[in-house]
Design brief:
The chain is of the alpha+beta class. Helices cover 27% and strands 29% of the residues. Strands 3, 7, 8, 9, 10, 11, 12, 21 and 24 form a 9-stranded mixed β-sheet that branches.
Length: 567
Amino acid sequence: MRQSTFLVPTLRDIPSGADVISHQLMLRSGMIRQSAAGVYSFLPLGWKVLRKVEEIVREEMDLSGAQEMFMPSIQPSELWKDSGRWEAYGPELMRVTDRHSREFALGPTHEEVITSIVRDDVRSYKELPMTLYQIQTKFRDERRPRFGVLRGREFLMKDAYSFDLDFAGLDKSYQQMYDAYTKIFTRLNLNFRAVVADSGAMGGKDTHEFMVLSDVGEDTIAYSDESNFAANIEIAPVNVSYEKTNEEFQEMKEVETPDQRTIEEVSSFFETSPSKCIKSLLFIVDEKPVLLLVRGDHEANDIKLKHELDAESVELATSEQTQQIIGVSQGFVGPVHVPYEVQVYADPAVKSIVNGICGANTEKKHFINVNTERDFHVTAYADLRNIQEGDPSPDGKGKILFKEGIEVGHVFKLGTKYSEALGAQYLNDQGKAKPIVMGSYGVGVSRTVAAVIEEHHDDNGIVWPACVSPFDIHLIAINVKQSEQKKLAEMLYKQFQNDGYDVLYDDRPERAGVKFKDADLIGIPLRVQIGKRASENIVEVKDRKTGNVEELYIDDLSAFVKQYSRQ
C-alpha cells in the first residue's frame, strides 16, 4: 500500500477527551474516528489490525471444533421476554420499534437467538454436543461510554454457545473454550489472567473473566502473592476470622452529630477508628428493602448480597426511598429500631464490634455503645464485603494483592437457564425430552485491539506485536525527489510484495522528520529506510521495539527480513 494514497490521518497532538493511551494512540495513528459518544469508525489502518485479531480468534475457535455462523443484530423482543431479560437486562439494552410498532432489541449478545435456532433444528441426543460461534457487531447503551473502544456502545465481539446433553458435557465444553481463550490471548502477547467472576445479566453460576493486567482497567483483580488464585474483587470470597474484644458492654446512648454523615467524619468526631463504626446501607432487593451492614473500614458488596439472596435486582436506595422507608436521610441510617419490613443482613465482621457506633435513624444523631444481638437483630450473617489487600488469600496461600484489569474475554456456564425458558430440548436414547445444557463464551475483539496497545507502546507511539501489526514492513523513501532513492524504493516495494509481505510504502513528498514520527506512531515492527546511500545499494533497517538500526546491502535484505519474520 502506498502511503500517499492510504487513508491514515495521523495527529500530532493528543485529542481532548482521550484519557487513556490506547484511545489517544488509536486516534493519533489514524486507526479510528468517533461518530458519536461510544461509537467509532475503524479506518483502514485500524480495520487491518481488527481483522488480524479476528483471524487469530477464528483460528483457535475452529481448532476447538466450534462452527462459525452469523446471526442478525436486530432481535425480536418476544425472545427476550420469553427469557425474562427484556426488563432484567436494564437500560443498556438498546430497544427499537419498527413501522408496525413491533419491538426489537439491538443485540448485546445472542443467547436468545441461538437458543431458538437450536430449539427448532436440533432434536436428538445424537446431534449433540455442538458449539456455534459468530464474530459480529454488538450494541450496549453504556451510561458513560469512555476510554475509546474499551467501553463503547457499538463494538465487535466473538460470541460462542455450547450445547450439551448434561452438565458433565458442559464442563468439557467449558474447558475447551477456556483453553482456546488461553491460546488466543497468549498468541496476542498479552499479560493476562483468568479470574473467577460474576455472571451478571448473563445468568449461570460458574464463570471466568480473562483480564489483561493494566493500569487503566475498569475492574480490580484480587490475586494471591503466592498462588494462582485470582478473582474479580466483586466476587472474591473473604476468608477472615473475627473475634470480639474483652470490653464490657456499655449503655447505648444517642448523641447529636449535626455535621457528621460519612464514616470518616463520624469516626473523627468520636476520636475512634472506622473499624468501631457500623456502616449501614439501604438496598432495594427485588423491590423489597434490605439493610446491609459492614464494618466501617470495609466496603459493602452488592454483588455478594445479590447472590446471597438469589435476587434478580439489587439497587442502592435513593435519598427519597431512604427517607420514605427509614424516615431519615442517608448518613444517619442504622440497624437499631428499623421498620419491621426491613430485613437486616450483616458481614461477619460486624458481629465482632463491641460498643460500636451507628446511625440512630434520627436526623443528625448517632448511637454509641451499640452491640449486636443486644441492641438490634440481624436476619443473617454472610460474606458481604469486598476483599482487601493484605487479607489472606481464599485458597489459604499467601496474601491478597490488587491489580487493575481490562476484560477481554468471558466464559459462562449457563446450564438450562435459556433452554428451559425457550423450550430447547432433545430426546435422549430412551425417547425422553431433556433440556439442553448450555454455555456462553465471548471475546471483545475491538477492545482486545485497545488492550494490545495499552500493553505494547512507548513514548513515541504503538509498538505492534508482529501477529497483529497492520503491515509486515514499513518501507520509507526518505527523499522521493532524489531519483536513486525513488528507484530503489520502487524496486524493493515490488520485491517485498512478490515475496508475500504486506508493505506500507511511504512515498509521500514529506520531510524525513514527519515520516519518522508517523512511522513511530503507527508502530510497524520492521522499518526499511532508503536514504543517502541508495546509490551504494545500502539501506537501513530499524527494529521498532528495540530501536536498533543496521545498514544492509540490498542483496542481504531478503534473508534478513525472512529471518526477522520468524522471530
